[in-house]
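Marked as duplicate of an earlier ticket. Keeping the data here for the record.
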Amino acid sequence: MTIAIFRDRTCETIQADPPILTMLYPFQRLVLIALTTAIAAPAQAQLSPEAVAAHLEGVMTTAEQAAVDPNFVSVRMTTCRVTVPDATPDAANSIYLYQEQALSNNLAEPYRQRFLQIVPGEDQRIESRSFKPESPEPWVGLCDRADRQVPTAALGELICTVALRESVLGYVGSTPAAGCPASFRGAASITNVVVLHDDGMDTWDRGFDAAGEQLWGADGEPYRYRWLAE
């Protein structure tokens, strides 16, 4: 099934199984239409991990959104490139990133830390593979350090993959329709839809319990991360 995403005056379609409709609906400014017939997309060259990584590196914040909507808090997301010296040869085309999220008023204590492996996927897509470090504390503030070498063993467990493809919006992707396993704020699984664009990133991050009931996350508006001016 094809889902049409309308952002402002731009329409984009993403391929998805029917269960992803539950993951996405409802939103106020993201209009979703499930089409019964898939729309053929033009052939595209294989995306470069470099292009996607460059779109993630830097500092983004939801401060602007939080200032006008009390349902959101100000969060800062910091992402930087890291080196994995002992990466296996089959990871030669990969780019590794470190990413942490923290409340803007408590940057010293991030509530989420991940290592990302940006790697070519199938069907002209790029996969963003998310690893959860077993011992996250030593990596707090890693992006402020000159030495950002991380051994493979420290990357942690692969917990989720988002498949991204290039679009007129920028880069659009999602987790599998069933979500990814989780143990965060009572959620047993997490789903996400991501749109990377020139202004930053919009995410529809949602947590569900074992019965499939939504516990937290986007429910009307996405989390709107915008580049922090230097």
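See parent ticket for discussion. The domain at 47-227 is CATH 2.40.128.590 (Lipocalin).
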